[in-house]
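Hi Q.,

Before the meeting this afternoon, I wanted you to have the flavin mononucleotide prediction in hand. No need to reply - just skim if you have a minute. The sequence and ligand are here:
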Amino acid sequence: MIKVLALNGSARKAGNTASLIKAACKGAEEAGAEVKLVHLYDLDFHGCRGCEACKLLDSPGFASCAVRDGLSDILEEAKAADVVLLGSPMYFGDVSGVMRMFIERFLYPTLTYTKDRRRGYTKRVRVGLFYTSNAPATTYPEWYERQRKMFEQLIGPAEYMDASETLQFDDYSKYAADMFDEAQRIKRHEEVFPEDCRRAFEMGKRLATF
Ligand SMILES: Cc1cc2nc3c(=O)[nH]c(=O)nc-3n(C[C@H](O)[C@H](O)[C@H](O)COP(=O)(O)O)c2cc1C
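Predicted structure with the ligand bound:
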């Protein structure tokens, strides 16, 4: 059976990113895959320590993260999966901190500085990247594409999608957020966001179909 590991990089378990990644999981399930969703904020872990143990030649730890913490089992599951789905809100023009820490720990062990640029992982894993942002859709495509290429070089065939101008606050009038047009955000959440989730569903289904 096709194995799919999905990771939510937002703390808001009922938020925009969670909705998008859950829709992708449903799509993968419809394709017949076995799907596991993990909320990264539930795990106790850190980013890469730069210990370089994963690059040590002739070592049993080659291409493997030596750090033992709450992410260790998830890293093994990600390497063994057929598909990895990663969802993150955009935080300061990048993925969230927890997603960034996961990416460091997942991608660095397979990277080598050899002349032939060989990869440490023997298996290729398909990757789906799901982003949400309050900025308009025109803001991050180049950045998304750079990140997609990084995954494609190091992990496997990668695709991305995003949901933009998301609903960030339950009641905008209660927060320091009057630069946003609340009525427009609510309308978008009701009319465009369901379509974003439908695209996430289709992408999850496509990625889990072999
Ligand atoms: C710490 C923080 C930083 C953010 N930085 C950005 C940003 O740089 N660009 C952007 O478009 N949205 C930014 N946002 C908004 C979120 O990306 C957006 O509301 C997202 O859809 C939230 O996802 P969630 O509902 O899954 O938490 C930021 C939000 C927070 C809390």
